[in-house]
Amino acid sequence: MREEERILCMDxxxxxxxxxxxxxxxxxxxxxxxxxxxxxxxxxKAIDAPYTKIKRRGHHAAR
Length: 63
Description:
By secondary structure, this protein is an all-alpha fold. The chain contains two helices and no strands. Helix 1 packs antiparallel against helix 2.
């Protein structure tokens, strides 16, 4: 079976929310003495996610 990949487009603010939410989840798991490996992996992926520039048409190109 082929592994599927999803791409999320987020601005800087949304990216920060995701990082903070994953870190809070990780801290909760540590407090409950549960394994944090899946959250750690996802947190690192979110932190290291590449930037892409959004291509927009110029103001005069729509005319």
